[in-house]
Structure formats: C-alpha cells, structure tokens
Amino acid sequence: MRYQLGSDQIPQAWFNVAPHLPEPLAPPLHPGTGEPVGPDDLAPLFPMALIGQEMSAEEWIPIPPEVIEVLSLWRPTPLVRATRLEKALGTPARIYYKDESVSPAGSHKPNTAVPQIFYNQAEGITRIATETGAGQWGSAVSFATQLYGLECQVYMVAASYRQKPYRRVMMETWGGQVVSSPSSLTEFGRQLLKENPDHTGSLGVAISEAVEDAVGRADTHYALGSVLNHVLLHQTVIGLEAKRQLAEAGEGLPNVVIGSCGGGSNLGGIALPFVPDRGEGVRLVAVEPTSCPTLTKGTYEYDFGDVAGMTPKMLMHTLGHDFIPPPIHAGGLRYHGDSPIISSLVKHGWMEAVAYPQGTVFEAAVQFARTQGSIPAPETAHAIRAVIDEALAAKESGEEKVILFSYSGHGLLDLAAYDDYLHDRLIDG
Amino acid sequence: MRYQLGSDQIPQAWFNVAPHLPEPLAPPLHPGTGEPVGPDDLAPLFPMALIGQEMSAEEWIPIPPEVIEVLSLWRPTPLVRATRLEKALGTPARIYYKDESVSPAGSHKPNTAVPQIFYNQAEGITRIATETGAGQWGSAVSFATQLYGLECQVYMVAASYRQKPYRRVMMETWGGQVVSSPSSLTEFGRQLLKENPDHTGSLGVAISEAVEDAVGRADTHYALGSVLNHVLLHQTVIGLEAKRQLAEAGEGLPNVVIGSCGGGSNLGGIALPFVPDRGEGVRLVAVEPTSCPTLTKGTYEYDFGDVAGMTPKMLMHTLGHDFIPPPIHAGGLRYHGDSPIISSLVKHGWMEAVAYPQGTVFEAAVQFARTQGSIPAPETAHAIRAVIDEALAAKESGEEKVILFSYSGHGLLDLAAYDDYLHDRLIDG
Question: Looking at the complex, does the CB of residue B415 fall below 8 Å from at least one CB of chain A?
Fold first, then answer.
C-alpha cells in the first residue's frame, strides 16, 4: 500500500531543529586559531544564504519556489506500507518506509544538492567543486549543477573511480567533470601523486582537493553532502512529508523512527521533525556499521571533519579524524565523525544508536528484496536490519507498534555487493 | 509536474484490443503441420488461463485481486509532464510520460510477469523456465516467481551473462537460477557447446533451451515477455492509467502516443487503449532502431518467433527469423519479428512506424537526462528521440500538440552504453 501526496503538497518550509535541541549547539572552531568560526571564515566555501541557515535559530525556513520546482521532479516521495514484509515476519507491527530512492540520483542526496546549488547560483557562483566516495553525493551535485547551469568538478576517490565506473558515467551523463583523486588538478593531489603514483585516495584526500580547488577560484564554491546543520535542514522534507502521509494512512505518531547513519543527513531528514514529539514517546534510532561505530563506540569531543585537519573542528561523536574504516560495501556510512546535531541528540539520550555487522545487514536486504521487491542500497539495509529486529521484538511482546524508516536509496549500482553476499564472498564484521 | 493516482485506482480490468482491430487476427500456425494451433498445442508451455486470454475476443478481462495486490507495490505509476524538456526545446507542445521505470525490476516487464506467474501458480505449476537477452525480462520473472513462491530457471544469452553481471545478480537476489546459454542443462545446449565450447549464444538459442526445459518437466511452464496477445493485454494498464491521469491533468485525448517497439509489449501497453480513439485523430507511433527495422523495412508474412523454428508461425512484420541484428545497446529492440497485433495496426495504416540510428537516440537520451533528471534505458531513448522530433515539428508549425509516451525503463544498468556515447565510442547505425 502506497501513500502518495500531490505535487502541490511538497513542504513550503524546512524544519530547523536547533531551537528544540537539548542544549544550544557548540560552535565550530577554526582549525588554526581554535576560535569559534564566523560567517567570514566560511565565505570562500559557501554562499551567505547557506551560512545563515547553518547558524539559524528560526524554527521554519521557507523553501524558495525555484527549489520546490526542481524537487517536484520526484517529490513528494511515496510512503509505503511494507505489508508483505510484515506478513513474512508474522509481526503485529505496522512498517512504513519513506522511499527516497525515487530521485534521479537514486537517493536522498539531491534534497540538499538542489537548494545548495540554487543558493550558489543566486549569489553568482558558476562552478562547484566537491568530493565523492561511493558516488552518491557526486551524482546528486552533478544532477543539480546541470539543472541550474553551473559547472561541476568532482574529485572521486581513486579506488571508487576504478571500481565503480557506472557512478562516474552517471555523473558525466549529467555533465559533471569527474577526476580520480588524488589528481593533478591540485597542489595537494600532485604532491601525493609524486610520492605514490598509484595512490588509491580517500574521502579525506578528496575533500582536501575540493576545498583547495574552491578556495583558489573566485567563481567556485564547495558543497558538502552531510554532517553540517544546513544539510540536515534540507533533508527534513523527508520527515515532514512522512508525518503527513502517516496521517493519511490513518496512523498517529510512529512509535519508532529508524534511519541509517553515516554523517547523519539521511537520519536527520527522517528523524528531526519528530524531535518535538519526544514527549509523546516517539523513539528515534540511528543505525551504523559495527566496523565504523561512531555513535556507539566513539567519544564526544571536538574533532576535525576531514583527515588532513583542514576543516573547522566540530563537537561530535568521533572515532578520531585519522580513523580509516574497513572497506565495507556501505560506503556512505564510512565516516569517522557525525553530525553535531545527531551527536548531541545521542549524547543526551534523546536518540538511540545501534550497530550491525554487514553480514546480517545483507541478510535483511535480501529478505526485503524478496518480500517487497525493491533492492536496497547497502546503507539503507542497515536501517532495514534494525526495522526487522524491532518488528520481531513486537511479535515477541505482541505490541502493535508503528515503525517508520527511511528507504534512503536503491542498490542498483551496488549489485556487486549482493554478488559477494549471495556467493559467500562477503567479509563480515 | 507529476500526476499520481491512489493505490485504489489501479485498473480492475485489462483492455483487449482484439474486437477493435482492423480485421480479426490470423491464427498462429503449428511449426510442423502448418495447421492453426489450438489450446492443446500450447498447454505444455502455458496455463489455460493465459491460452484463453491469448484467443479471447472479450473487450475487458478482469484482473485478479491477487495480481492487483502485487502490482500495487509500484502501481499506479506516475504520469509526468516534462516541462523542463518542453522549455529547453522551446516547443508549444505539452509532453507527458508514463513512468514505468519505477517497478522493482526497473521497466514495464513486471506488468505481465506478475499475472503470468499468478496464473501458473493457480494451475499448480511450481517452476518457470524462461530466457533473457539484455536481462529485463529475466529480472521481471525472477521478481514475480519469488513473490508467488515458484522456482525460476533463466537461460541468459552467454554474451550478456559475461557482459552484464549486474543483471544476473539482480535475478539471483530475487532467487532466480541463472545459467549462461547455451548451457549443459538441455540437450540442445549440450549439442551447441560440444560444437563450440565458447558459443556466445543468442535469444533464439535461449528460447529453444527454455522451451525444451519446460516441455520436459510436468512441474514447469514457459513464460514469454513480449509479442503474444496476452502479454500486450497485461501491459494495457499503462495506457489505461495514462488516460485517467491525462484527464486529471486537464487534458483531453493526446494528439500522438509514442512508444519504442521491439516485440511490441511496451508500445502495445501505452497505445492499444487509444486504438478506439483513432476516429478522434489520435496518432499512434512505433519507434524502432534502423539496425533492426522490422516495421519500417520488414515484410508482412507468416514467420517463426524464434531462430530455430520451434515456435508457431505468426503473421507479422519480420526481417526473417534468421536475421541477427547488430549488437546495439537497446537489446530489448533486437528482435526480427513483431507482435501480430502491432503488425496488423501498422499494416492497415492505423499506426505509424519510424526508425532511428542509435547515435541520435543517445543524443536525445542525454538531452532528457540533462533537463528532466532521469536517465532512460536505451530502448526508452528511441521513444524520446521521436518525441523530441514531434515537439520540434510542433514548434515549427506552432501547434499546441499533446504528446504522450511510455518511459518504459531506466538506464541505470545500461550506463556502459552512455560511457560509449559520451566518449565517442558508440557505433552509430
């Protein structure tokens, strides 16, 4: 059963959770001086509109009509009741998922790529530099820059560039310029290539190259796909639509809201609009891989966002900025840190966090594909694992629980991971 | 702008065009005797319900509730107005597309795979044998057999099996058994492998293996994804929904309905419900590749459906059953023959046919991706080429034409083709 809103029911404003947090967010600190960063420090990288959103305390921030027009290419996304999965589990729980995989790039990432590029265009920027690991973010930015007529330079982690040619082609189809990182386009890249011409790269390296590119050119800004407050803000359209669709389905508030968590943008999108409903007993759950257990095993402290230590320091859960997670298939969850907003919620016990090894995650993914049909992204499958366990617990206790989760992306460009799982080549852990 | 019907608005009956055709369909002829085939001849391959539909003259055939329940996993599909493409073309035409890419298998194929497997299950069949070339049909059958609890054996053309591992993994994720064809599972396959262990296979060979498999086992039937009347019948949900959605969009009948055509199932799905509207001036257009110009250059005569001459002969447009099309990327359009229904409509001038070389087709595909966001399958891109040309003609003449086309599938598992196009490696023709 699918619940679909009309094109005229896309939210008109983003929900800013800042005034609802357990305590005010700690300011990011300048990597050099250790002082709180101000708008001017960020101006070489981001347009003022986004810097303003990053620091805003307004509860609702209007979405520009030009952004809504582009979002309407795929929004509102369907809310789907997973009745076939419920039946297979024999659970009394009612499971709903918000299907963000229907965007052109196949994930929730365009929800923020589109407004980010819009604000850059509005302030006269004509070129964007960004990084991508597994390719989801680079795809979303290539898509958005094409629609608003900006150039796009993507620094793609060398290992992914070689292993995931389809992601590169997707970006190029939308006109993105994709280069293997480290590259000869930046001073930092050239230096690394000189030391090791076969350098496989890393997200940290790619971020450093994109930032160097953006800082060095007046026509160019940088764009980040997770972690920051304005990114989570843009993703709240997910949860806002889901609330309205649950009502359409005849449900009240969900008992539990679940999302996979790497940098926090997907989880924030589905969960933040439910933070004010905490008093009504709505549980919020973050799901992460045991191999990169930022929220479940990390410490809560100031740390850099990147490996090289070039970004501002943020107060967040972190495994240390030099932590390199093992190469699990859920590339989008391989991040040493976490969104300061998500970290604060977990720190104060307003949000739970669980971790799963990828073997049991793929087991859940295949069970989902074989009941509901759709093949989830490995990142999304983490949420599905937790959902199934919640539903089985409800079966045990006989509770008619309502479970909501974010189906953050499809797995059609991740089928090599399924191949490994189905033929017992998956490294568990 | 997207027009979305509720889950309760899936059509309750398929539209059978048979009573509306220019003349009654000529019967298929037995490959051995040359006599018209009867239900008993087809019983080793198909359930009686489908044989009945194949020969039915009823205008409306009810869709079983058990089929509607599964179709509701993705249906009704959205009707989308391509306003960004219209703007880029500067055309006064209004372009609408029916988005069949949202099915779990990524194309229109599950619309018939689901009822076919349902009827087989209802008649006690527990296993399906089928063939697949590019992989769309095998994916749809694997998906449907998984949902209804049947086993599935897919014979996948050896060349595709090697070149398209992701399609194989998709089928395996849904529990399909996939073997490279020719295989050692059949007498015919073993014979071919003995002659040439490196045989690259063909659709004709794979059909022969699947038919041999099905005929040889009482628990097993065969399933075909195009050409036959019952297949086109099941696809009419596309056009039926589109009619209702066009009304919702405030439009009357479209001026032109466009679909790409290989065996005819996609085109039939969008176009057949409009055959009775011929008197109102609705034009129907088939689009095919110039490299496999069945409708535009073939002859209208009785011919076999397969290369080996094992299937009944059908009256249709054909390039000769031994015609092997060049290896263009639109694998779904590489068929020597065509649906007898589509062929009859073209023969009597009730439907137009045009052909395009693949270079200009991919040019249209990239233009679509860069305006509307979604990346179309190469087959679908043939329709888009024709749509763009219709829209440009409308610009020339100043006509406010309404164009409807079937967006039959996404190109996410065909990105290698885009890679070739973007880097000037595409063989045109």
Answer: yes
